[in-house]
Amino acid sequence: MTGGGEASQAIDRRSVLATAAATVAGASGCVKRTRNVMARDPASQVSLRILTMPVDANPYPSRIARELASNLRACGVDASVEPMGPEALYRRVLLDHDFDLYVGQFPRTDWRDPDQLYALCHSVYGGEPGWQNPFGYTNLGLDDRLVAQRTTSGTDRRRAVADVQTHLAENQPFTTLAVPDALGTLRTDRFRRWRGSPIDPLVLLGLEPAGSVTTLSLATTDGRITGNRNPIAAEFRARGTFVDLLYDPLARRVDGVLRPWLASEWELDGDGGRPVAEVTLREDLSWHDGESLTAEDVAFTYEFLADTSLGTAESPIPASRYRGRTSLVDDVTAVDDRTARIRFTDASTVVARRAFTVPLLPEHVWSDRTETAKVAGVEANRTMTEALAWNNPRPVGSGPFAFERAVPSESLRLSRFADHFLRDEPSDLPDRLAGGPAYEELRLTAVGSDDSAVEMVASGDADATVAPLGAAVVPRIGRESALDLVSAPSRAFYHVGYNTRTTPLSNVRFRRVVARLLDRSALVESVFDGYARPAASPLAGTGWYDPEEIPDDAGPGDSFVGTGGELDVEASKAAFVEAGYRYDEGRLLIE
Known about the structure:
The chain is an alpha+beta fold. It folds into three domains: 9-180 and 492-590, Roll (Dipeptide-binding Protein, domain 3); 188-247 and 399-482, 3-Layer(aba) Sandwich (D-Maltodextrin-Binding Protein, domain 2); 249-389, Dipeptide-binding Protein, domain 1. Strands 2, 3, 4, 5, 21, 22 and 23 form a seven-stranded mixed beta sheet that branches. Strand 9 and strand 10 (257-260) form a beta hairpin. The chain is globular, with a radius of gyration of 24 Å. 49% of the residues are buried. It comes from Halosimplex aquaticum. InterPro entries: SBP_5, SBP_5_dom.
């Protein structure tokens, strides 16, 4: 298998950028939507659509979008907010690239390693669907910095990561606004050992039932898992809680440390250049349907995630959800049933280990899903395989829970997988996980609002909520003596994304002014009710973000054009003029 070669320095860098730029402008399916200055009137008002979710799906991005639109209109821009359901939004932004701006939340993921920024921002991904570079941003200088953080270690890598953040602050392909607290509620009368948020699958696996309790009941406002259980579908997976319960990776981060999971051990050698790993699987692993899980499945998974057509399409069709991690892998070979040899691309050994965390897929289930598929709502020239379009109604994984049944938009039921390796009480994992899960069944109920989710827990119909709650229900939780409020740090930052393929958002000076129209600190109070932290970088709140390492003049930062959340309209207009734009009768013009 060949995958991830785009990181290689052997590729001519300017050819890569030229190819990426051509892909962004052409193959992305946006040619008919790209705003061409030559096709406009000599001077017309700047017009921008801001896509976001409706209030009932998530109130935070909607409120941010409305405030941004209001401030843009005050500056003479014809700005409108277009709310749509999560799936439609993600299709427009991630698959079709049909947007001007959007306000959203980056999916919950592990931001402890800044290599997450590689797929999010590298030019080579600008024309692909998914969360990798949905902005269509192309810049050789940033590419070089992203490669540097991927291939170095120690102080050299820290310097490279700081350079990446400086570049993002200066050029604003997206504007980071805030890192929210993941709020939830739970009750402790039926289950003990709650060691964090119910959103964390390892928290759920470590629970201890009281007495003869055999079923864990959860409430959620995000019912997409009830209708679509495809682990590689980008538009259906905002969080991986249930995917992580159904599917296992080679390694998981447990208590902050990357530990072997399906692997019993690995040897990772990077002294001779590109890293190579010998991975040994645990004994007697099996899939939920009883088939043996072997190193051949490991090799298949990485080949398949790199190209879901398995070479049958004119060009690879990768699974975008795990693109950043699979791009680290060059080749995987099954040495024997329990041993896989993984050869990596140019990367440090620390970064290369990220590839161990993708979910393994059974070859006998997914290998016949390689044909191209046509999906309603997706641009006709956007190639997609059956694997990416499939809703995976009866998932076959190897995780600690197996699928039982589901009612779309209503419920999901999982049962404990008796043959999971945790049942053998492995000594290399914490005691709370060994032998688990300690209950037989997990039931999920989808409800229409945060209030309904809280009511289910308060009435005893659910043990916890498993989707982040809005701050508005916190007082309701406080009034119930049976309920505990759970607040956990989240790395799923809220941001404004710009389609840099279009005019005027292709202009960095324009984006820098737009980035200054929102007051992060005021948003935390007015939108998040204080349950968030202002953030000028996606790495804010991690050990990789140090404001002192980023120059004071590197981009808008917190330099809101106004005071206390109130926009200084005249100063904002002056900023647009300084950026090269002009006004006519109060309208901001593009020429």
